[in-house]
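Example 9 (inverse folding). The structure is encoded as follows.
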């Protein structure tokens, strides 16, 4: 998985799937509407809250939150709207397997980290291959096979 010049591959970022983004944007738009109504009826400065909610909704649409990031040393799983972020180093991962729509990382200490691939949508296959490739690179051999 190393690049042709022998260096480690660049870190990869995986963002939240659009169907989850749209639900979040919908909730923010409803909240902005309520804040705008209250700004007109009750207290004018709530208009600032309306503006902030609309800007945040636009930001989430343009650049969805990161839910996974892989790099040569390990991975960060989770983030806004998914789960509490967990940091893994490849050296502490004993095994990786797919169970249903989740990727299960078995750690050396006996614990497991379960990451739902649903949050990645169409990027899930690329993420799984990236994880297997980085584990193979970290271990120095072809231990993990994404076809199994």
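The amino acid assigned to each position is listed next.
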């Amino acid at each position: 998985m190393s690049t042709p010049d022998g260096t480690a591959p660049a870190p990869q970022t995986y963002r939240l799937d659009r169907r989850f983004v749209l639900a979040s944007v919908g909730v923010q738009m409803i909240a902005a509407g309520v804040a705008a109504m209250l700004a007109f009826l009750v207290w004018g400065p709530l208009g600032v809250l309306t503006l902030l909610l609309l800007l945040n909704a636009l930001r989430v649409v343009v650049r969805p939150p990161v839910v996974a990031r892989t790099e040569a040393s390990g991975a960060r799983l989770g983030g806004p709207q998914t789960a509490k972020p967990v940091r893994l180093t490849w050296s502490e991962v004993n095994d990786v397997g797919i169970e249903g729509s989740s990727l299960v990382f078995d750690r050396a200490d006996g614990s497991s980290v379960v990451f739902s691939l649903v949050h990645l949508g169409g990027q899930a296959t690329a993420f799984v291959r990236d994880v297997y490739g980085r584990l193979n690179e970290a271990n120095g051999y072809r231990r993990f096979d994404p076809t199994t």
